[in-house]
Write a structure and sequence with these properties.
The chain has five helices and five strands. The chain is α/β, with parallel strands linked by helices and 145 residues long. It has a single domain, classed as Rossmann fold (3-Layer(aba) Sandwich). Strands 2-1-3-4-5 form a five-stranded parallel β-sheet, sandwiched between helices. The radius of gyration is 14 Å and the shape is globular. 40% of the residues are buried.
Length: 145
């Protein structure tokens, strides 16, 4: 079953094109999704955070939204994070993507980086939540959103 949250904040922060800044968080663990969403929502008062616990539902959501950044786990049922990243890259090579995972396999990290993603390990500072939040902020700032 997929968990969805339409947005966090009463109003939406406007980016460079006068559209709402938003982040899509994808992880099969509802507690992780909730924590990542809570950390990211602290970046800006009115940032929209969309969440999904099912990667296939997340892809459908991604296709209907125009998000400014994606945070995605690697190990998920039905589709891993690299397959999700590949599907995103087929549509858009520029969407900032943060692979947030406990997997430390060099081939996974290298492939993610080759496709333009940032890698954050889940066991970093604060379980990696502070690190992933910093990477999202960096990617939003550098993308001009």
């Amino acid at each position: 079953m997929s968990q969805s949250t339409s947005q966090v904040g009463p109003e939406l922060l406007r980016g460079a094109n006068d559209r709402a800044r938003s982040v899509l968080v994808v992880d099969d663990e509802p507690d992780i999704v909730s924590l990542v969403s809570a950390y990211i929502s602290r970046l800006e008062e009115d940032i929209a955070v969309y969440t999904e616990t099912d990667p296939e539902a997340a892809l459908a959501r991604y296709r209907e939204l125009q998000v400014d950044c994606i945070v995605c786990d690697y190990e998920m049922p039905n589709m891993d994070g690299l397959s999700f990243l590949s599907a995103v890259r087929e549509r858009d090579s520029e969407t900032p993507f943060v692979l947030f995972t406990g997997v430390e396999a060099e081939d996974v990290v290298d492939q993610a980086r080759n496709w333009g993603a940032t890698y954050v390990h889940k066991s970093g500072r604060g379980g990696g939540f502070e690190d992933v939040t910093e990477r999202v902020a960096d990617r939003l700032d550098s993308s001009g959103s």
